What does this fold into?
Amino acid sequence: MARQVVLLRGINVGPRNRIAMPELRAALEEAGFEDVQTYLASGNVVLTSRARPESVARRVEQLIGERFGLQIPVVARTQAELAGVVGRNPLREVAIDPKRYQVSFLSAEPTAEVVRGLESAAGPGERVVAIGREAYAWHPNGIGRSPLWAALAGKGLGVTATARNWATVEALLALARD
It folds into this structure.
């Protein structure tokens, strides 16, 4: 059994795609996941499962569709994989504000062409580094008008992606370790 972090894309950030965390926890527990915990109300779940992260993500997507009638993309990582994401931290020297430092978790490794597109989308002072199935992005002026953020949040990546700021990434790792 492995602790896993399950990341739902785009829930509870506006008027659409609303899911109450107690209901989500109950649905996941009923589906057989163990030690289910949520963090904040924006689609962060830590749970225990024997299944591989890809299978967990597919099962959670299916469950959300059946139970809540929503089509929500999901990405999952084991606690060890998330520890690797934190340990790599390629922008630690420049990303000094954890709220402006984002990690996009991808369902698959992006193509070299996609990575070049992200690099060229970076605005003044912004940085992006793609390593495996994660893209680390520093937005010193915030994400509000960032063309890099627009590229990371859009559908042009060719893979499912969901982002969390660095403070959330570290909090999820701590929760997964408990």
